[in-house]
Amino acid sequence: MIQKFKRPVVWIPVVLVLFSGILAFQVKNDKLFALAKNIDIFATLIRELDSYYVDEINPDELVTIGINAMLEELDPYTEFIPEEESDDFRMLTTGEYAGVGALIGNRGGGNMILMPYTGFPAQNAGLKIADFIIKIDSIDVARKSTSEVSELLKGPANTSVKVTVKRNTDTLQFSLIRKKISLKNVPFYGKLDDKTGYIKLADFTTNASSEVRNALVALKAQGADRLILDLRDNPGGLLNEAVEIVNLFIPKGKEVVKTIGKLQNVNYTYKTTKTPIDKEIPLVVLINERSASAAEIVAGALQDYDRAVLVGRKSFGKGLVQTTIPLTYNAQAKITTAKYYIPSGRCIQAIDYAQSRENGSVTTVPDSLRKAFKTANGRVVLDGAGIEPDEKVSEITYAPISYTLVAGNHIFDFATQYFYKNKSISNPMTFQITDQDYEDFKKFLIGKDYDYTTYTEKSLSDLEKYVEKEPYYEEIKAQMEAIKAKVNHSKENDVDTHKKEIRKILSEEIVSRYYFQEGMIEAGLDEDPAVELAKSFLNTSSKYIKTLTASAK
């Protein structure tokens, strides 16, 4: 009886394993069959459409539309990159292309230079902000799109191109030699005072970590013994660059990020491999709702190790990793292959795309489902909705008139006019337009279209739409009109009422004409609430240390 009892004990697990293996094989086969079947149906449909549809069709265009529609069902980051877009994709990941080195855009019905990059052909040749591009070589580009003009300016390095522009009333031609353009990940760094260094990291393309390293070393050599790393508005990029940047501040052998996906080959733990530049320097990292991906890895890892105080607003919440997969005919696919987890063990992905696919709506992780984790010092941090700063800073809100003056290009146009009337200005951090300059701006606005609706006017208008439907509307109509008359804005008065903020916006735009992107960033740091708060942490060691201890949260 004992022997008879033992035999099933031995064989039942074997039978179960065999059965589960057969079942798994069957499921896999069913999936492969469904995949092959649907690919065959899709190919047959395209072929029959090409044969029978009443009008001529473009198979390439239809297939691309179909592919993009399919990928949109997954998440915003999984993309198809056809061969003709591979150069643009390469530029996004490496920050490199061959061209003249200028940002162009459509203003006033034409394409103009918005920013020549320092040290590259456009700036070296003398092209200026607000130059309208009217011809490239012999091609009239007055009616071409911005993307078409951009492509004409690009080309193999060391080839020549002639650019004809309209500057005020003059028509000027410039001869340029295209060069390999490497866009800076660190467009500006400098000292904010005798002791405080500042690094603006705008992107995570190739060499981002080297640029941050060089900036850090230079600032320390200049006497900086505390640092602000600005990751605001940084959309992220290359994961390995994020790991290298964290390594500048924490010791060798520490985990920075772990990626976990469906396939074993995407599961990987990234650790620091080098001796840090400075593991003691007091550090504040600035983040906001547009800090994403690699920027969140840097901010989150430094927070998890209690190596930096985070100041600003909650980050975007992109905890997904994309891998570029080569396809046939030189096409590529950027596919979400994993989620990433920072040292405390948390994933900061804010949107559950799997759940969104099921119910058709974008679903964020509810607060009730966010899990608690702990930093190295025992501070509580949460997963599932971006990186929370240690100290919050409210977003700056501008008056409607300021938005309107910027959107209508009135700030831009006045700055250009100012530039051609004034040969030089003081340094970016100290420059401010004078009261007389502001009066000149007010005169400049005379006859210009810059109408807008204030927040109060919009609220009253919305209220009136509802009240009009009520039976007592006629009784209160006169009072409504009286209130509207009292709050009705005066454009001229608003220019004076909001002089301080408009003046600052004007000053920053004018600075860009003389000092380009670097100067505009530096000028924007003056009276920046997040920067001021960061400096207060760095200038008060007790406040800085207390924030990084377990009792801080």
TrEMBL record:
Similarity remark: Belongs to the peptidase S41A family.
Highest taxon of source: Bacteria
PANTHER family, per database record: CARBOXY-TERMINAL PROCESSING PROTEASE CTPA, TAIL-SPECIFIC PROTEASE
Pfam families registered for this protein in UniProt: PDZ_6 (PF17820), Peptidase_S41 (PF03572)
Gene Ontology annotations of biological process type: proteolysis; signal transduction
Domain (PDZ) ranges: 98-169
GO molecular function annotations of the record: endopeptidase activity; serine-type peptidase activity
Keywords: Hydrolase, Protease, Serine protease
GO cellular component: outer membrane-bounded periplasmic space
Transmembrane segments: none
Coiled coil location: none
Protein name: S41A family C-terminal processing peptidase-3
Keyword presence, Protease: yes
